[in-house]
Amino acid sequence: MDAPAVRWGILAPGFIANLFCTALRQGTRQEITAVGSRSAERAKAFADEFGAASAYGSYQELVNDPQVDIVYVASPHSEHLHQARLALEAGKAVLVEKAFTRNAAEARELVELARSKNLLLIEAMWARFLPHYDVIRQVVENGVIGDITTVYADHDQPLYPGGPDRLANPALAGGALLDLGVYPMSFAEFVLGPFTSITAVGALTDLGVDSQETVVVTNAAGAQGVLHASMLARSATSASVCGTAGRLDIDGTFYMPAGIKMYDRDDNLVDQYEKVADEGHAGLRHQAAEAARCFAAGKTESAVFPLDATVRVMEAMDNVRAQLGVRYPGE
């Protein structure tokens, strides 16, 4: 609530945009100013629901609105390059939903464009902005659990078959990795920093997108991450950070607002962090507040989740797809 109020334009008013705007209305002072959709009727209905003054039947009209400070790109990741580029070329700051793009080349293109225009660009990997992630950062940086040895994280949801068509479609950059695996991959990068090696095994659907994968990563210090994603079944969506002096277990779904339990090396509970008031997707407000602070301060990226880290995660996922044999049309 302390974050400065800036004016948001919502590009693609779908499921995640609804959750995002609900979080803004309930937990921030942000202004939902305009909505853009391929359907003028859909834009108008969304604008009416969230009190936006303007509704547009095209994305170009939205990004051209002089009353919009930041554009939130809420479409599927197969469209992010074109739509984020549209907003940047119109001179707008941009918050882009995860996965940032289809691949690292597209990510680098957007980063280079934003930097050339001195515009704010942030990936909306909302977990990176949640309070318990900052607690983990402090514990790791201060050596509270010793030298980090291992990170574990899983994200499995029963989304195939029978889920959204885009997840099965190579033309829409479908598969488990970019939709689900991006969370454990980003969590491991957050804790371990750049990966020096990546080893992946997985399975593909009959259309050639990944249905699940297990990935082992290492960093320069030799610490490892053991990560899993699947769209075939549901997992505990858990995460742990292990060190030579203790362990952190995220208490709940690791990428949503959660508490943390800290154990010593003998498995005794020695401390815990209680979850803040946010429940579920109400935590989306934290990424919006960070974007608003960055915009008001004239920054071009967030120190909480720098653009170089976004690119590194995309590069790692490119590496995993190459090992699994997953290619999207046009790559």
Automatic annotation (TrEMBL):
Q: Does the keyword Oxidoreductase apply?
A: yes
List, for all copies, the residue spans of the domain called GFO/IDH/MocA-like oxidoreductase: 136-248
Alphabetical list of InterPro entries matching this protein: Gfo/Idh/MocA-like_OxRdtase_N (IPR000683), Gfo/Idh/MocA_domain (IPR050984), GFO_IDH_MocA-like_dom (IPR055170), NAD(P)-bd_dom_sf (IPR036291)
- GO terms, molecular function: nucleotide binding; oxidoreductase activity
Q: Which segments constitute the Gfo/Idh/MocA-like oxidoreductase N-terminal domain?
A: 7-122
Mind listing the UniProt keywords for this protein, alphabetically? Oxidoreductase
Question: A Pfam family name for this chain?
Answer: GFO_IDH_MocA
- Family as reported in the entry's similarity comment: Belongs to the Gfo/Idh/MocA family.
Classification via PANTHER family: OXIDOREDUCTASES, TRANS-1,2-DIHYDROBENZENE-1,2-DIOL DEHYDROGENASE
What protein is this chain from?
A: Predicted dehydrogenase
Provide the organism lineage as a comma list: Bacteria, Bacillati, Actinomycetota, Actinomycetes, Pseudonocardiales
